[in-house]
C-alpha cells in the first residue's frame, strides 16, 4: 500500500522515471534541433555570398579548415548552444557532431531542394512564364547550361521575378539535345511547358535556328512560346562581328591589348605609366565588350601621354627585347592610322554601349527596346556620312600634340594567286587614306548596321504582334476596326491546338471601355510598368485578369 501511494503521488507530481527520461530525451532533441538550426543558418550565409565551405582540413581549430568550420568556431565564442556542442566534441563526449563534409553537402542539398520547391510553387501560382537559357564552360571544361524562368507574381503588388533553377551539364550543344534537356528538366519539376509564353536566348545558330534550333523545336511543342532574342547579348555580338570584319580593326585591337600586356609585365613599367596618365590602360574580355570601350577610351584621350611613357620605358628598362617592343608600340600609337582607328572605335563603342546598358535593365519595355535599337541604327547611319572626316580632324590634332607628322603611310598589300573568273577583280585603291576609309571605316560601320538589322528582326516582329498590349492609352485612341484587327491578331498568336488564351473581341471591348488617363500621366497603367523585353511579361496581366479589374483594384 505504501509503494502504491508513493507511485500515485509521483504520477500526480510528474516525478516518475519515465517522465524524467522523457524530459531528458526532449532536452536532447531540442539541443540537436538548435545545433542544426545554427548549422543551416551558416550554410545559408556562405551560400548567399558564394563562399567556399571547406579547406584542406576537416577538424576544428585548424588554420586551414575552411569557412564553415571557422564560422562554427566564431559562433561558439558567443552562442551557448554551439559553445556546449564544441566543448563536447573537444572532450570526446560525442562522436556525432554534424560538421563533416558529407553533412555539409547534405545541408546544401536540403536548402537547395527547399528553395527549388518554393520556386516551383510560385511558378505554378503565376501559371505563365518565359524561359531564358545560356551555355558556358566551367573551370573543369564542362559545358553548363543555366536555366532561368521569368514570371509575374500576382499576389499583392504585381512583381516581375526571375528564378534560377540551376545548372545542367550538356554533352552536345545541338538544338535537339538542348531542347530535350529543357523539356526533361521542366517535366522533372512538374512545370507544364504548355504554360510557357516566351523564349529568350542569344543569337547562336543552335539557339535561334529556324529549322533545327532550340526555339524552333520548342515551338513544335508550343507555338505560343514566342522567341525573343536577348537584346544585350545580341548587341555585343553585333560589335564582335564588326571587329572581325576588317583587318585594320583586328590589328588595332591587337595593339590595344599589347599596350596592357607591355605595361603590366613589370612593376617598373606600370609605375612609369602611372606618372604620365590619369586612367591606366585596361585589358579586355572576349565576352564583355564594355571592357573594350574602357581600354579604347583610355588610349583615345591619353594617346600622347601613353606614347611618352613608352619612350621613357624604352630608355629605362634593360631587357633588349622589351626595348624593341616599346619602340614598336610607341611608333604605332603615334601613327596617323592608329589614331584614326582609335577615334572611330571609341565613337562606335560609346554609341552602342549606352544602348547596351539600357537593354540590360530588368524593367526595360519591349517598345522602348525597339526604339533604342532603332535610334542606335539611325545614329550609326548618320555617323557613316561624317564620321571618317571627323576622325581625321581629331587624329590630326592629336598628332600635332605629339609633334608627329599626320601622314598615312601606304602599306604593301599582299597579293594572292587567283584562278580564272568571269568577274574582274576590284581595282585597288591607290590613295592610302581612301583605302583606310573603304576597307576599314565603311566595312566596320556597314557591318554594324547590317548586323543590327539581321539580329533584331525578330524583336520587331514580336513588337508588331503584341503592340496592342504595350500601351493601352494609345490603343484606346485607335479606330474600332484597327483595334479589333490587332486584338484578333493577338488571339491568333496565343492560340495553339484550338486552345486560345484570350478572346480578341472581348479584349477590344475592354480596352475601349477603359477610362481615360489623367492629363500629363504616362505611367498610370500597371501593364506599362510590367512590359519587359521578354514576351510573357507583356501578356500575363491580360491572361490572368481583365484590364477593368486592374483599374478598380490598383
Strand runs, count: 7
How many helix segments? Answer: 24
What gap, in angstroms, lies between the N and C termini?
77 Å
> Which percent range fits the helix content?
55-70%
In what range is the share of β-strand residues?
A: 5-15%
Radius of gyration: 33 Å
| Unreliable segments of 5+ consecutive residues | 521-554
The main pleated sheet reads as: 5 strands, mixed
Strand order of the largest sheet: 3-2-1-4-5
What does this structure look like?
With 554 residues, the protein is α/β, with parallel strands linked by helices. It folds into 4 domains: 2-99, no CATH class; 116-229, Nucleotidyltransferase, domain 5; 237-412 and 425-457, no CATH class; 466-553, no CATH class. The chain contains 24 helices and 7 strands. The strands form 2 sheets. The protein has a 5-stranded mixed β-sheet with strand order 3-2-1-4-5. Helix 9 (231-243) runs antiparallel to helix 15 and helix 10 (247-263) crosses helix 14 (320-333). 29% of the residues are buried. The model is unreliable at 521-554 (pLDDT under 50).
Amino acid at each position: 500500500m505504501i509503494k502504491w501511494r508513493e507511485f500515485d503521488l509521483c504520477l500526480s507530481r510528474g516525478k516518475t522515471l519515465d517522465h524524467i527520461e522523457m524530459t531528458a530525451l526532449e532536452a536532447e532533441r531540442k539541443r540537436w534541433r538548435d545545433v542544426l538550426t545554427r548549422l543551416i543558418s551558416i550554410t545559408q550565409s556562405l551560400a548567399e555570398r558564394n563562399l567556399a565551405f571547406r579547406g584542406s582540413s576537416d577538424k576544428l581549430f585548424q588554420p586551414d579548415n575552411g569557412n564553415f568550420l571557422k564560422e562554427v568556431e566564431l559562433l561558439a565564442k558567443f552562442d551557448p548552444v554551439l559553445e556546449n556542442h564544441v566543448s563536447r566534441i573537444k572532450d570526446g563526449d560525442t562522436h556525432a557532431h554534424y560538421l563533416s563534409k558529407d553533412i555539409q553537402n547534405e545541408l546544401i542539398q536540403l536548402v537547395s531542394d527547399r528553395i527549388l520547391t518554393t520556386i516551383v510553387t510560385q511558378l505554378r501560382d503565376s501559371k505563365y512564364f518565359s524561359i531564358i537559357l545560356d551555355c558556358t564552360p566551367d573551370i573543369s571544361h564542362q559545358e553548363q547550361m543555366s536555366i532561368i524562368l521569368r514570371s509575374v507574381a500576382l499576389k499583392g503588388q504585381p512583381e516581375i521575378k526571375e528564378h534560377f533553377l540551376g545548372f545542367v551539364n550538356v554533352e552536345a550543344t545541338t538544338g535537339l539535345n538542348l531542347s530535350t534537356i529543357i523539356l526533361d528538366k521542366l517535366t522533372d519539376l512538374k512545370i507544364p511547358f504548355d504554360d510557357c509564353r516566351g523564349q529568350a536566348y542569344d543569337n547562336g545558330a543552335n539557339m535561334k535556328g529556324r529549322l533545327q534550333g532550340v526555339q524552333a523545336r520548342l515551338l513544335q511543342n508550343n507555338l505560343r512560346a514566342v522567341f525573343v532574342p536577348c537584346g544585350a547579348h545580341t548587341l555585343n555580338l553585333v560589335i564582335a562581328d564588326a571587329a572581325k570584319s576588317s583587318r585594320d580593326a583586328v590589328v588595332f585591337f591587337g595593339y590595344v591589348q599589347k599596350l596592357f600586356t607591355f605595361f603590366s609585365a613589370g612593376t617598373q613599367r606600370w609605375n612609369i605609366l602611372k606618372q604620365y596618365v590619369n586612367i591606366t590602360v585596361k585589358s579586355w574580355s572576349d565576352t564583355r565588350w564594355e571592357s573594350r570601350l574602357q581600354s579604347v577610351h583610355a588610349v583615345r584621350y591619353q594617346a600622347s601621354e601613353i606614347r611618352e611613357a613608352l619612350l621613357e620605358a624604352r630608355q629605362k628598362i634593360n631587357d633588349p627585347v622589351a626595348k624593341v617592343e616599346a619602340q614598336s608600340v610607341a611608333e604605332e600609337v603615334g601613327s596617323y592610322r592608329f589614331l584614326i582607328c582609335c577615334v572611330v572605335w571609341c565613337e562606335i563603342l560609346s554609341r552602342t554601349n549606352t544602348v547596351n546598358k539600357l537593354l540590360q535593365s530588368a524593367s526595360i519595355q519591349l517598345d522602348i527596346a525597339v526604339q533604342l535599337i532603332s535610334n542606335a541604327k539611325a545614329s550609326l547611319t548618320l555617323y557613316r556620312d561624317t564620321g571618317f572626316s571627323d576622325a581625321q580632324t581629331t587624329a590630326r590634332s592629336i598628332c600635332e600634340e605629339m609633334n608627329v607628322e599626320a601622314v598615312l603611310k601606304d602599306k604593301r598589300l599582299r597579293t594572292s594567286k587567283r584562278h580564272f573568273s568571269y568577274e574582274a577583280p576590284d581595282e585597288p585603291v591607290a590613295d592610302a587614306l581612301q583605302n583606310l576609309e573603304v576597307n576599314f571605316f565603311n566595312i566596320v560601320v556597314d557591318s554594324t548596321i547590317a548586323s543590327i538589322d539581321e539580329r533584331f528582326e525578330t524583336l520587331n516582329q514580336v513588337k508588331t504582334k503584341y503592340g496592342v498590349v504595350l500601351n493601352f492609352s494609345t490603343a484606346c485612341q485607335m479606330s474600332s476596326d484597327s483595334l479589333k484587327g490587332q486584338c484578333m491578331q493577338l488571339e491568333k498568336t496565343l492560340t495553339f491546338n484550338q486552345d486560345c488564351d484570350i478572346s480578341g473581341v472581348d479584349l477590344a471591348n475592354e480596352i475601349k471601355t477603359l477610362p481615360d488617363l489623367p492629363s500629363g500621366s504616362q505611367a498610370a497603367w500597371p501593364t506599362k510598368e510590367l512590359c519587359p523585353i521578354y514576351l510573357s511579361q507583356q501578356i500575363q496581366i491580360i491572361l490572368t485578369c481583365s484590364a477593368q479589374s486592374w483599374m478598380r483594384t490598383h
